[in-house]
Amino acid sequence: MPQTSGNPAEELDSLTIFLHFGLMVFGVLTWISSFWAGDYKSPHHWGFTVHKMLGLGTTLFLAGRLFHGFFGPQAARFKNWVPCRSDQLKAVFEDLRGLLTLKLPDRPPHQGLAGLWEAFGLLLFTWMSATGFFMYVFLTPGSRARGVLHLVKELHELGEFLIPLFLGVHLGAVLLHALAGDHRWRKMFFLKNPSN
Protein backbone atom coordinates (compact mmCIF):
# COMPACT_ATOMS: atom_id res chain seq x y z
CA MET A 1 0.00 0.00 0.00
CA PRO A 2 1.24 3.50 -0.71
CA GLN A 3 2.49 5.59 2.16
CA THR A 4 -0.03 8.38 2.51
CA SER A 5 -0.41 10.38 5.63
CA GLY A 6 -3.88 11.63 4.75
CA ASN A 7 -2.50 15.14 4.79
CA PRO A 8 -4.76 17.32 2.62
CA ALA A 9 -1.64 19.20 1.43
CA GLU A 10 -0.65 15.97 -0.38
CA GLU A 11 -3.95 15.79 -2.25
CA LEU A 12 -3.87 17.14 -5.78
CA ASP A 13 -6.50 19.73 -6.63
CA SER A 14 -8.78 19.41 -9.66
CA LEU A 15 -6.93 22.10 -11.65
CA THR A 16 -3.61 20.27 -11.24
CA ILE A 17 -5.23 17.05 -12.42
CA PHE A 18 -6.90 18.84 -15.36
CA LEU A 19 -3.58 20.45 -16.39
CA HIS A 20 -1.80 17.08 -16.16
CA PHE A 21 -4.54 15.48 -18.26
CA GLY A 22 -4.27 18.23 -20.90
CA LEU A 23 -0.48 17.91 -20.98
CA MET A 24 -0.81 14.16 -21.33
CA VAL A 25 -3.28 14.32 -24.22
CA PHE A 26 -1.74 17.23 -26.13
CA GLY A 27 1.85 16.16 -25.37
CA VAL A 28 1.36 12.65 -26.73
CA LEU A 29 -0.59 13.85 -29.78
CA THR A 30 2.05 16.51 -30.49
CA TRP A 31 4.81 13.92 -30.23
CA ILE A 32 2.96 11.51 -32.55
CA SER A 33 2.28 14.27 -35.08
CA SER A 34 5.98 15.20 -35.10
CA PHE A 35 6.64 12.22 -37.38
CA TRP A 36 4.77 14.06 -40.16
CA ALA A 37 6.03 17.58 -39.39
CA GLY A 38 9.04 17.29 -41.72
CA ASP A 39 6.84 18.38 -44.61
CA TYR A 40 7.31 22.04 -43.58
CA LYS A 41 9.72 22.37 -46.54
CA SER A 42 6.99 21.69 -49.10
CA PRO A 43 4.19 24.00 -50.24
CA HIS A 44 1.61 21.55 -48.88
CA HIS A 45 2.49 21.00 -45.22
CA TRP A 46 -0.54 19.57 -43.44
CA GLY A 47 1.68 17.46 -41.11
CA PHE A 48 3.58 20.54 -39.96
CA THR A 49 0.34 22.49 -39.52
CA VAL A 50 -1.26 19.76 -37.37
CA HIS A 51 1.93 19.43 -35.31
CA LYS A 52 2.08 23.19 -34.86
CA MET A 53 -1.53 23.45 -33.65
CA LEU A 54 -1.18 20.53 -31.24
CA GLY A 55 2.10 22.03 -30.02
CA LEU A 56 0.31 25.29 -29.22
CA GLY A 57 -2.23 23.31 -27.18
CA THR A 58 0.61 21.62 -25.29
CA THR A 59 2.26 25.00 -24.69
CA LEU A 60 -0.96 26.46 -23.25
CA PHE A 61 -1.44 23.56 -20.84
CA LEU A 62 2.24 23.71 -19.89
CA ALA A 63 2.05 27.46 -19.24
CA GLY A 64 -0.95 26.83 -16.99
CA ARG A 65 0.91 24.08 -15.11
CA LEU A 66 4.02 26.23 -14.67
CA PHE A 67 1.94 29.13 -13.35
CA HIS A 68 0.06 26.75 -11.06
CA GLY A 69 3.37 25.28 -9.88
CA PHE A 70 4.57 28.66 -8.66
CA PHE A 71 1.32 30.24 -7.47
CA GLY A 72 -1.16 27.39 -6.97
CA PRO A 73 -2.03 25.46 -3.80
CA GLN A 74 0.80 24.05 -1.67
CA ALA A 75 0.55 20.47 -2.99
CA ALA A 76 0.88 21.74 -6.57
CA ARG A 77 3.87 24.01 -5.94
CA PHE A 78 7.22 22.90 -7.30
CA LYS A 79 9.12 23.95 -4.18
CA ASN A 80 7.34 21.18 -2.27
CA TRP A 81 8.32 18.34 -4.58
CA VAL A 82 11.10 19.23 -7.03
CA PRO A 83 14.10 17.57 -5.33
CA CYS A 84 16.52 20.43 -4.66
CA ARG A 85 16.83 20.27 -0.85
CA SER A 86 19.06 17.71 0.86
CA ASP A 87 16.12 15.80 2.42
CA GLN A 88 14.41 15.58 -0.98
CA LEU A 89 17.60 14.36 -2.66
CA LYS A 90 18.08 11.82 0.12
CA ALA A 91 14.61 10.42 -0.68
CA VAL A 92 15.60 10.12 -4.37
CA PHE A 93 18.70 8.08 -3.46
CA GLU A 94 16.65 5.91 -1.06
CA ASP A 95 14.20 5.18 -3.88
CA LEU A 96 17.05 4.31 -6.27
CA ARG A 97 18.57 1.94 -3.69
CA GLY A 98 15.16 0.37 -3.22
CA LEU A 99 14.76 -0.20 -6.95
CA LEU A 100 18.10 -2.04 -7.01
CA THR A 101 16.56 -4.51 -4.57
CA LEU A 102 13.35 -4.65 -6.67
CA LYS A 103 11.35 -2.64 -4.12
CA LEU A 104 8.98 0.01 -5.48
CA PRO A 105 9.18 3.48 -3.92
CA ASP A 106 6.43 3.87 -1.35
CA ARG A 107 5.90 7.61 -1.06
CA PRO A 108 3.16 10.22 -1.44
CA PRO A 109 2.72 11.75 -4.92
CA HIS A 110 5.60 13.81 -6.33
CA GLN A 111 8.09 12.73 -3.68
CA GLY A 112 11.50 11.10 -4.06
CA LEU A 113 12.38 9.59 -7.43
CA ALA A 114 8.89 10.33 -8.79
CA GLY A 115 9.39 14.04 -8.06
CA LEU A 116 12.75 14.02 -9.83
CA TRP A 117 11.33 12.28 -12.91
CA GLU A 118 8.28 14.55 -13.02
CA ALA A 119 10.58 17.59 -12.74
CA PHE A 120 12.59 16.20 -15.68
CA GLY A 121 9.35 15.84 -17.65
CA LEU A 122 8.32 19.43 -16.96
CA LEU A 123 11.77 20.68 -17.99
CA LEU A 124 11.63 18.56 -21.15
CA PHE A 125 8.18 19.82 -22.12
CA THR A 126 9.22 23.39 -21.31
CA TRP A 127 12.24 23.02 -23.61
CA MET A 128 10.12 21.49 -26.37
CA SER A 129 7.47 24.19 -26.03
CA ALA A 130 10.03 27.02 -26.05
CA THR A 131 11.90 25.73 -29.10
CA GLY A 132 8.63 24.82 -30.83
CA PHE A 133 7.18 28.26 -30.20
CA PHE A 134 10.38 29.84 -31.57
CA MET A 135 9.91 27.85 -34.78
CA TYR A 136 6.21 28.69 -34.85
CA VAL A 137 7.10 32.38 -34.90
CA PHE A 138 10.14 32.31 -37.20
CA LEU A 139 9.88 29.26 -39.46
CA THR A 140 8.25 29.95 -42.80
CA PRO A 141 6.63 26.81 -44.21
CA GLY A 142 7.77 26.09 -47.75
CA SER A 143 11.37 27.11 -47.05
CA ARG A 144 14.33 25.51 -45.30
CA ALA A 145 15.43 26.42 -41.78
CA ARG A 146 18.84 28.14 -41.82
CA GLY A 147 21.27 29.55 -39.24
CA VAL A 148 19.98 29.87 -35.68
CA LEU A 149 16.57 28.60 -36.77
CA HIS A 150 18.19 25.40 -38.07
CA LEU A 151 20.04 24.95 -34.74
CA VAL A 152 16.82 25.44 -32.76
CA LYS A 153 15.06 22.95 -35.06
CA GLU A 154 17.79 20.35 -34.46
CA LEU A 155 17.63 20.90 -30.70
CA HIS A 156 13.83 20.62 -30.82
CA GLU A 157 14.15 17.29 -32.62
CA LEU A 158 15.96 15.82 -29.59
CA GLY A 159 12.44 15.42 -28.25
CA GLU A 160 11.91 12.54 -30.69
CA PHE A 161 14.16 10.51 -28.37
CA LEU A 162 13.70 12.16 -24.98
CA ILE A 163 9.89 12.24 -24.93
CA PRO A 164 9.50 8.46 -25.48
CA LEU A 165 12.16 7.91 -22.79
CA PHE A 166 10.23 10.11 -20.35
CA LEU A 167 6.87 8.56 -21.23
CA GLY A 168 8.21 5.00 -21.10
CA VAL A 169 9.65 5.38 -17.61
CA HIS A 170 6.68 7.40 -16.35
CA LEU A 171 4.07 4.98 -17.70
CA GLY A 172 6.17 1.99 -16.63
CA ALA A 173 6.24 3.30 -13.05
CA VAL A 174 2.48 3.91 -13.10
CA LEU A 175 1.90 0.38 -14.40
CA LEU A 176 4.19 -1.21 -11.80
CA HIS A 177 2.49 0.71 -8.99
CA ALA A 178 -0.94 -0.30 -10.33
CA LEU A 179 0.13 -3.96 -10.41
CA ALA A 180 1.24 -3.54 -6.78
CA GLY A 181 -2.23 -2.24 -5.82
CA ASP A 182 -1.55 1.51 -5.92
CA HIS A 183 -4.11 2.92 -8.35
CA ARG A 184 -3.22 6.59 -7.97
CA TRP A 185 -3.33 6.87 -11.78
CA ARG A 186 -7.13 6.85 -11.58
CA LYS A 187 -7.09 10.39 -10.16
CA MET A 188 -5.61 11.65 -13.44
CA PHE A 189 -8.84 10.55 -15.12
CA PHE A 190 -11.01 11.92 -12.29
CA LEU A 191 -11.83 8.39 -11.11
CA LYS A 192 -12.04 7.16 -7.53
CA ASN A 193 -9.07 5.15 -6.23
CA PRO A 194 -10.42 1.73 -5.17
CA SER A 195 -7.63 1.33 -2.59
CA ASN A 196 -8.89 4.36 -0.58
UniProtKB/TrEMBL annotation:
Subcellular location: Cell membrane
One term under GO cellular component: plasma membrane
InterPro entries recorded: Cyt_b561_bac/Ni-Hgenase (IPR011577), Di-haem_cyt_TM (IPR016174), Hydrogenase_cytochrome (IPR051542)
Gene3D superfamilies linked to this entry: Transmembrane di-heme cytochromes, Chain C
Chief location category: membrane
Transmembrane segments: 12-33, 53-71, 116-139, 161-180
KW Transmembrane (keyword) present: yes
Membrane topology: Multi-pass membrane protein
UniProt entry tagged with the keyword Membrane: yes
Keywords carried by this UniProt record: Cell membrane, Membrane, Transmembrane, Transmembrane helix
Domain Cytochrome b561 bacterial/Ni-hydrogenase, chain residue ranges per copy: 13-189
GO biological process: one example: respiratory electron transport chain
GO molecular function: electron transfer activity; heme binding
The name this protein goes by in its record: Cytochrome b/b6 domain-containing protein
Organism this protein belongs to: Desulfobacca acetoxidans
